[in-house]
Request: fold
Amino acid sequence: MRVIVTGGGTGGHIYPALAIAKGLQSAEPQTEILYVGTDTGMEAKLVPEAGLDFAGVPGQGLPRKISVETFKVGAKSVKALWKTKQILKKFKPDLVVGTGGYVSGPVVLTAAFFGIPTLLHEQNALPGVTNKILARFVRKVMVTFPDSIAHFGARKKIILTGLPVRAEIGQVSRQAGAQRLNLNPRQMTLLVTGGSRGARSINQAMLKVLKELSSHPEIQVIWATGKATHQETLKGLQQAGIQWKRGNWKILEYLNDMPAALACTDLWIGRAGAASLAELMVAGKPAILIPYPYAAENHQEYNARALEQAGAARVILDKDLNGETLWRTIQELTGQKTRLQEMSAKAKGLGEPEALSKIVNICLETGWK
Reply:
């Protein structure tokens, strides 16, 4: 089978597309994959590094206000449609799978126009504009959150699959995870992340939290500050007079072993990107979610609210975040172990550990028809 996967703009669209591509190759080694993305996007670097063939098309998101830039973007879209047509004619795919981002638009739409079987995967609770439009033309739409189903018109096309996560997530024991990070598996553990680059507002709030935790040696901390804000955070700790080099605190620039960290975590604190939440749910971890306020269409808040409504998380909006609010919420939750266990069970119930397998089966069924 010959398959085109397409998605770009952010890692939230690219990594699921890569997971689907690799999953198809694993299930059917003879499958030929071509990844189509924007020729200037991060996918142009990540896809070849993953060992997949890549074809670039012009592409750019539409500006929010009509301007000269709008017409420039429109011209790029026309070029993208023409380039996509050429790619489809040359590669002759049996299936096209889109994971969102503006590059999915011309690729999936053109494929559907030519009668090529097409699928979408939506990562977020609030679907992006591109996917809501494309849903009318594709065979099926696979979604991560039950909440997103209501945002699509064609309900019969929607299949709840979840989002693919790393195979080791949820498979590491608490004992093994703590050992890998040199922590005590019997102690309460907080995991704090803000993404690979970091989240300044979370890091600033954590300065106050660590000051309070200085007198709570029974609580361990794993804190990935992010590469862009690591030195700034260490300087803030020094200025606050916090002795942060402790055996039960792991303050890192980047967390390389997320499966181990999740395994020994009792409460997770961080943003609400779909990929992170998918891992939280599979691992069954309660969370304090602080949605990134500038995410497209505020989709991170929708993601976070979906978990909150299910009883798996507490949400603090970025505008309301400060050290006192975060510390108060941590105190409240860590002081109620039964509640944390209930939240953990709720999160686990939302997880889809077999997401990739489900998606691959749908792709194979659709492509072979």
Q: What stands out?
A: Residues 62-75 have pLDDT under 50 and may be disordered. Residues 137 and 266 are 43 Å apart (CA to CA). The chain has 14 helices and 13 strands. The chain has two domains: 2-165+353-368, 174-350.
